[in-house]
TrEMBL record:
Signal transduction histidine kinase internal region domain mapped to chain residues: 157-236
Gene Ontology CC annotations of this record: membrane
Superkingdom of origin organism: Bacteria
Keywords carried by this UniProt record: Membrane, Transmembrane, Transmembrane helix
Transmembrane segments: 12-36, 42-62, 74-97, 117-136
This protein's name: GHKL domain-containing protein
Gene3D superfamilies for the chain: Histidine kinase-like ATPase, C-terminal domain (3.30.565.10)
Gene Ontology terms for molecular function: phosphorelay sensor kinase activity
Length: 346
């Protein structure tokens, strides 16, 4: 059975509305009977009994229709139920009044029954409509919650899948480099294996997190750069530029590595001289901006090859996390390739 989203709030509204109806009904019945010249005691007893009866019926309506959601074909059933509850309220009221008042004071009772039926029917129908609208609202909110939860699970699964793809993507490159170093530089190959182990161990610890601090991300990125420096030796230089207050900012886990890997690929492959890769981080108006720049040679046809997996995976992750497509931009300026990544902090 579907549970209301806010049971306590609904109970409070039921109690408040029922007793408001009780007070207003008492005042209306007493005023009408007094205006009709009915004896004061009879009017008082009648008003009290009628008000308490309609209040009890109100609670009964709320209880019986607590989770009821009619379809278009069952609307007529509501009016039938309202008529039945109205008839019950009239019979109970009449029975109790007869018990408390002498017969000579009951002449007005028979003539007032049609008016009582109409008033009670309208009140009970309104209560039923309010209750059903409340149920519809709860159903809509519950459906929205389930939809959001389902979308979140799908989004988290896709994010996890993207992150899992990044590991073998980098791992294959590293293993190929280790294989290449085993014959000519076995010591460097051995060091690279240890560094790769440390990097993967740190990656596994991040599997349950979507975000981390800039400080943790930079420390993890430096493990990756240590591996790449074994591959490229003195030809790879990196430079970080940031202020200390940036280190506490939030950033998606392992989102910098594909950008730096892309910079290394297009900056060092088929290049013999030293290459400097700059990583600049700034924080301004709740927006963390990371710029990664690397030189490149436009006449190298190899630069145009590749699947673009790193950049496309980042674009997809940013869209899933922030629902924006403008957070990653790339540009070239005088043989310098610049990737600009922006991470909202709000």
């Amino acid at each position: 059975m579907r549970k209301p989203l806010n049971e306590q709030s609904k109970r409070s509204v039921i109690h408040a509305s029922s007793w408001i109806i009780c007070v207003l009904y008492f005042l209306i019945v007493y005023s009408l009977l007094w205006w009709s010249k009915v004896a004061k005691d009879a009017a008082l007893y009648d008003a009290i009994i009628s008000a308490l009866t309609i209040t009890g019926i109100t609670y009964l309506v709320y209880s019986s229709l607590q989770y009821y959601l009619p379809n278009n074909k069952n609307i007529w059933k509501l009016f039938s139920i309202a008529a039945i509850y109205t008839l019950i309220s009239i019979l109970i009221t009449r029975f109790l009044i007869i018990q408390f008042l002498p017969n000579e004071d009951l002449i007005y009772l028979t003539f007032s029954l049609p008016f009582r039926f109409v008033i009670n029917f309208l009140i009970i129908t309104c209560v039923m409509i309010i209750n059903i609208f409340w149920n519809i609202q709860e159903e809509l909110l519950e459906n929205k919650r389930r939809k959001d939860e389902s979308e979140r699970m799908v989004r988290d699964a896709e994010l996890y899948n993207l992150r899992q793809q990044l590991q073998p993507h980098f791992l294959f490159n590293s293993l190929n480099s280790i294989i290449a170093l085993i014959g000519s530089k076995p010591n460097e190959a051995r060091n690279m294996v240890f560094q790769l182990s440390d990097f993967l161990r740190g990656t596994m610890r991040k599997d349950e997190k979507q975000f981390t601090t800039v400080e943790e991300e930079i420390n993890h990125l430096k493990l990756y750069l240590d591996i790449e420096k074994v591959r490229f030796g003195h030809r790879l230089s990196t430079e970080f530029e940031f202020d200390d207050y940036v280190l506490s900012s939030k950033i998606p886990v392992m989102i910098l590595q594909p950008l730096v890997e892309n910079a290394i690929k297009f900056g060092l492959y088929n290049v013999t001289e030293e290459v400097l890769i700059k990583i600049q981080l700034t924080l301004d108006e709740q927006m963390l901006t990371i710029k990664i720049s690397n030189p490149f040679e436009t006449d190298q046809t190899e630069q145009k090859k590749g699947t673009g997996f790193g950049l496309s995976s980042i674009q997809r992750r940013l869209y899933l996390l922030f629902s924006r497509t403008d957070l990653l931009q790339t540009e070239t300026h005088e043989h310098i390739f610049i990737s600009t990544l922006r991470i909202p902090q709000s």
